[in-house]
């Protein structure tokens, strides 16, 4: 029988991607990391400003082993990052999915099921116009797959007013908790309900803009969201 | 007619809570901030470790004008914060709700509707046993209202193994985007669907633990989630 095809090599653990606790929940598996990153479009980007930490929510997309973070040229992290000639901006980019509420019989063992990815690295502004345009398309398509082809592309002025940060996927880890509660053996007979409440995400019915021509129907890529 | 009752005073803006862009989306309204914080239980906590930013997802609860962040005594931010005698840990705590995908006719004007709160401040470990116990109950009840009374309270050993950070709500801002796309007038006749796709969150059917006594029914506080 042929050997199973090996998956891509995992990310290499570093001092700051090996957790001090719950190390059994950590993973460096590339496909797991990509899957967590591709399932949503909002990250929390951390950086240092005037010696203090700042965490801002922002849109992003993954293209291969790069993340692109979208922003305005006026936004502080983007201005601080400079372009590829500059030293860049030290960042930590974190993406988290909550999958379930874990209700144990004891307060102490309550938990949540989650999947998170933490990326450490140095971000730079994307200055190459082609890369920038492709990155912005990727961000739009990361939010709504297929949408970039069904919208008016950015013009020169709009591209100039938009900034994109690039962050390579090198120092990366995932952390995952799954499964039910882990109660102490002596608590099993307690009369409290115990189990997992799944957390679900989804989309409601699209609401057309007031000025939408009624002849324009809902595109297929929205009906399958 | 009586004057309307004034709401609580807003948070005082500071250099770092006044955004450099989209300032019209910023708010310091206390009730708005509390509402955003109370609607979920997961925040992203940023701090500085070895000169670099770190952003970790973690559970929290609000009690009045204080946030409590839950962790293990082994976790790095909690150890770094020290207790009330120590200088504490500079943090930025951010909470974000995504409410809708905003699809404009132009790629440039794509956006998301969201509500976020950013809290800057210094976190300390809670060492008073009563405050710690109340904070942990608050975290459990923040995730599932009513649950702390229907679980076995933490014992001395469990309380010792759990750490709680306290962060006062002082330097706080909210940012909110609502409404439809803001297309350019010259784009209105383009043939692209435009509007908002609502993002919805909810819960699935609770899954009992394998060892749950079938005589223990689903509590009311879960059936109303």
UniProtKB/TrEMBL annotation, chains A, B:
> What InterPro entries does this protein map onto?
Pyridox_Oxase-rel, Split_barrel_FMN-bd
Gene3D superfamilies in alphabetical order? Electron Transport, Fmn-binding Protein, Chain A (2.30.110.10)
Spans annotated as Disordered: 1-25
Listed transmembrane segments: none
Pro residues composition-biased segments: 1-11
Q: What is this protein called?
A: Pyridoxamine 5'-phosphate oxidase family protein
Please tell me the species this chain comes from: Streptomyces niveus (Streptomyces spheroides)
């Amino acid at each position: 029988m042929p050997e199973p095809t090996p998956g891509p090599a995992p990310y290499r653990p570093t001092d700051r991607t090996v957790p001090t606790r719950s190390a059994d929940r950590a993973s460096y598996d590339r496909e797991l990391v990509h899957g967590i990153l591709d399932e949503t479009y909002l990250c929390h980007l951390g950086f240092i400003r005037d010696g203090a930490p700042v965490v801002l929510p922002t849109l992003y997309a993954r293209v291969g082993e790069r993340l692109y973070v979208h922003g305005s040229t006026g936004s502080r992290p983007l201005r601080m990052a400079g372009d590829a000639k500059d030293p860049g901006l030290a960042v930590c980019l974190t993406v988290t999915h909550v999958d379930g509420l874990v209700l144990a019989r004891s307060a102490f063992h309550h938990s949540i099921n989650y999947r998170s990815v933490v990326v450490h690295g140095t971000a730079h502004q994307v200055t190459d116009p082609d890369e920038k345009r492709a990155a912005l398309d990727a961000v739009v398509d990361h939010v709504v797959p297929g949408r970039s082809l069904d919208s008016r592309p950015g013009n020169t002025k709009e591209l100039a007013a938009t900034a994109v940060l690039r962050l390579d996927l090198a120092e990366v880890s995932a952390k995952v908790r799954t499964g039910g509660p882990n109660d102490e053996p002596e608590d099993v007979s307690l009369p409290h309900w115990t189990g997992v409440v799944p957390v679900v995400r989804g989309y409601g019915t699209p609401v057309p803009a007031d000025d939408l021509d009624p002849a324009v129907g809902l595109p297929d890529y929205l009906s399958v969201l």
